[in-house]
């Protein structure tokens, strides 16, 4: 007789990989269930300011049920999203194609003719995500262009490709209402961007092309079922079949402290799409518990961060730097270093607590002492200006945050074990050689720009005092390989050691992209789904 499943496919996570998978598989006739531990957000329930940490930060154990998470590790601090729609709810809309050289680096090298096959998938991803040139250039972008020209790199300045709806050509101020502009009326109605700069704290104006406006929206319209605030706690192959007979998936409430609401679902196929950190953590649990012991020992290896550093330049009393889209422009400081102008909307000043006056030097205790003397000298020479620069309020309106990314390779390894300070549970931990937290060329660029434009430079507290870099782009850990000895998944995103199991999220990336990774995750997942046949092309599974 036929095996009955609750779903044909269960997808864990609804970010760029999960939402793409949900749409493409519903289109192919599969019954799809999507499990996401985050909440569902809309313009009506977004926080009015990120000072409302209970609706902005994600720490359910502390009663914080927002969509923005900070994860602290020995080697890096990771910023990422938790929500229905994954990181698209809080990301900066920036959708860039990486340089072709990334395909000749890392674990995916030689697994396909990437330069030939990827352009078509990038084109599909761009169409679905509504990618177009930024049309809301503002003060921060004009300032960055001046800085690039001052560095002799003005020819590399560009306006970003973003997933934002700007309206018609004559809609210059935004805020107008439009019927679905992307999917022949099958998508939701939209409003044009007003350039408020609040993309990363949740778009309240219905202009951001987050996944709940495209892939996930269409998937649900075609029958996919999304289970919000649902955390997957365990996955087990049915009948000890290594996945041939499908999987049972155990869930519990994603945010409740006491009412766990435990459930069990079954599915023929399973797709892990819970973000790089989420998927690694779950796969480590499954491997170590014996639920899926054949997962490759390569799990957790070669986790990359885009070799990032965050710096800032503040202009107290100057132009409003919060206007525009979250990341509106960028330039290339050199062949390895890519800098983007980033902003938060007016009043969203919470992340000011992560910055302190710009300090040079070299990483280590000496840099901490240098910071103290730099701050003291600044207070003595320019007391009012220095104090205004340290005031957390007004930070977003007055500040350009520089996202500095490099294509220079470097990686960490993730492990899942008990920390010395809390031996009662296991957690993800980093190991390996430290990734540089200090990019001298970027630091010098901010210092030069501060003098050029009479601003106040700023460094990240974690990078300065703890020599720990910060990244919003944690990638890898479940990289592609030619076998289980070189990767966790194959070139079609199939999990080595198990049938009917896939990984489709940032953990699959095999090299530092040097640009924001969302578009590449989308394109690679489009490619992965293209290999899965329509449901009616697969013979039914029978039991003896």
Keywords:
alpha+beta, 12 helices, seven-stranded mixed β-sheet, globular
What does this protein structure show overall?
The protein has helices at 16-27, 53-56, 114-129, 139-150, 215-221, 275-289, 365-381, 383-390, 395-398, 440-453, 461-465, 518-530, and strands at 7-12, 32-35, 58-59, 64-65, 68-72, 77-81, 131-133, 158-159, 161-163, 177-178, 190-191, 225-227, 230-237, 247-253, 263-272, 303-304, 309-314, 327-332, 337-342, 355-357, 399-406, 413-417, 427-431, 456-460, 470-471, 475-476, 501-503. It is an alpha+beta fold and 544 residues long. The model has no long low-confidence stretch (mean pLDDT 92). The strands form eight sheets. Strands 1, 2, 12, 13, 14, 15 and 27 form a seven-stranded mixed β-sheet that branches. It has a seven-stranded antiparallel β-sheet with strand order 8-18-19-21-17-24-20. The longest helix is centred in the C-terminal third of the chain and has 17 residues, at 365-381. It has twelve helices and 27 strands.
Mean pLDDT: 92
Strand composition percent: 15-25%
Helix content: 10-25%
Instruction: State the shape.
Output: globular
Summary?
The protein is an alpha+beta fold and 544 residues long.
What's the SSE blueprint?
Elements: E1 7-12, H1 16-27, E2 32-35, H2 53-56, E3 58-59, E4 64-65, E5 68-72, E6 77-81, H3 114-129, E7 131-133, H4 139-150, E8 158-159, E9 161-163, E10 177-178, E11 190-191, H5 215-221, E12 225-227, E13 230-237, E14 247-253, E15 263-272, H6 275-289, E16 303-304, E17 309-314, E18 327-332, E19 337-342, E20 355-357, H7 365-381, H8 383-390, H9 395-398, E21 399-406, E22 413-417, E23 427-431, H10 440-453, E24 456-460, H11 461-465, E25 470-471, E26 475-476, E27 501-503, H12 518-530
Parallel strand pairs: 1-2, 1-15, 2-12, 6-25, 15-27
Antiparallel strand pairs: 3-4, 5-6, 7-9, 8-18, 10-11, 13-14, 14-15, 16-26, 17-21, 17-24, 18-19, 19-21, 20-24, 22-23
Helix pairs in contact: 1-5, 1-12, 3-12, 7-8
